[in-house]
Specification:
The complex is a heterodimer of chains A (114) and B (221).
Chain A: H1 3-21, E1 25-32, H2 40-51, E2 60-65, E3 69-72, E4 78-80, E5 96-98, E6 105-111
Helix pairs in contact in A: 1-2
Chain B: E1 2-9, H1 12-27, E2 31-36, H2 43-53, E3 60-66, H3 71-77, E4 83-87, H4 96-105, E5 113-117, E6 134-140, H5 147-150, H6 152-157, E7 160-164, H7 167-170, H8 178-186, E8 193-196, H9 205-218
Parallel strand pairs in B: 2-5, 2-6, 3-4, 3-5, 6-7, 7-8
Helix pairs in contact in B: 1-4
Classes of the chains: A alpha+beta (114), B alpha/beta (221).
């Protein structure tokens, strides 16, 4: 349940931005990588629990899970890694270098407009 | 409705402290390893034996992370190594600000390296950078050889995998396919070093000690 700390940080950042824009946040889009995933349900639950009675109460979160890529050491192809069977999509070789995983990112906030 | 582009790292507070810890440890030229495993894999037993058997070669300081109690710190204290206990009070992982504080208390200048024992949990700790030079995954054979396939993240991010409690296999108490676990653990991480060990009997520990001594000699990479 590290989603608790993720939700806490998220609320702090969104509250800061809301103060800056002087508007009520109603939605947020976040994204995460493959090796640093969040569980959608756990994050929404934590966000709802911690966000109650704050500016973030009722805010809807959209979560995008980004795949991790790799570069084949044999043919140089860059491909999307299937965790269950990672191999080059071009030549099938299993020697590859992982590309950096996507960080846990707050991408956008939707603010209410009058 | 108005969309505002933010593009901010959600764990930026943690990452900021992790970066400061990296700078601090690099400046002092100290290796720092973050041990991660499920509860009960034998992390503390591995640490205590390692500290005792390497005491003429390496001065090791320890940061212990647990939800409650200082039981682990007491076990490390018995080896005479300096130790800081962190209680996370419910949190399932250590975070970088806690390590910053521990590093201020440990006698870092007198040490060759720092070993962090994270809270027992095979998932969450791997998502939080602490400023370590590398991660050490520990898996005991009693947990099953399917774990690297089921929990790929920690094995993909580690420098070393310690397969502990192999004495249980010799006794016929546990079936565990070392080759399967190793192949699955290396699927995303070809350079992962794997050491089958028993921290209880000492079997296999010398390869792990050699790796540690060599890593300290080479310095932080």
């Amino acid at each position: 349940m590290h989603e608790m700390m993720v939700a806490q940080s998220l609320i702090e950042i969104i509250s800061d931005e809301a103060a800056k824009h002087n508007a009520k946040p109603v939605g947020a889009k976040i994204s995460c990588g493959t090796l640093n995933p969040v569980n959608d349900e756990a994050l929404r639950f934590a966000f709802e629990a911690i966000g109650k009675d704050t500016l973030c109460e009722g805010l809807k979160i959209q979560i995008e899970h980004k795949p991790i890529g790799a570069r084949c050491k044999k043919c140089g192809e860059e491909f999307r890694v299937e965790l269950s069977r990672p191999a080059c999509s071009e030549c099938g070789d299993e020697s590859f270098e992982l590309l950096p995983d996507a960080p846990l990112l707050l991408e956008e906030i939707d603010f209410e407009t009058e | 409705m108005e969309k505002i582009n933010i593009e901010k790292k959600i764990l930026r507070e943690n990452d900021k402290h992790a970066f400061e810890n990296v700078m601090f440890l690099t400046d002092k030229k100290k290796l720092c390893l973050n041990m991660i495993s499920s509860p009960g894999s034998g992390k503390t037993t591995i640490l205590a034996r390692t500290i005792t058997e390497l005491k003429d070669k390496l001065r090791i300081g320890v940061i212990e992370g647990d939800i409650q109690t200082d039981i682990d710190a007491e076990r490390i204290r018995a080896t005479d190594a300096p130790v800081i206990q962190i209680n996370t009070e419910g949190a399932c992982h250590l975070s970088a600000p806690q390590i910053s504080e521990a590093l201020r208390t440990l006698p870092v200048d007198e040490l060759d390296m720092i070993l962090i024992e994270n809270v027992g949990n095979l998932v969450c700790p791997s998502a939080f950078a602490l400023g370590e030079s590398g991660k050490i995954a520990v898996l005991s054979v009693a947990e099953g050889d399917d774990k690297p396939a089921k929990y790929p993240a920690i094995f993909a991010k580690s420098k070393v995998l310690l397969l502990n409690k192999i004495d249980l296999m010799a006794g016929g108490h546990v079936d565990f396919d070392i080759e399967r676990a190793t192949a699955d653990a290396r699927r995303l991480n070809k350079s992962l070093e794997v050491f089958p060990i028993s921290a209880r009997t000492g079997e296999g520990m010398s390869d792990w000690y050699d790796w540690l001594v060599e890593s300290v000699r080479k310095g932080v990479d």
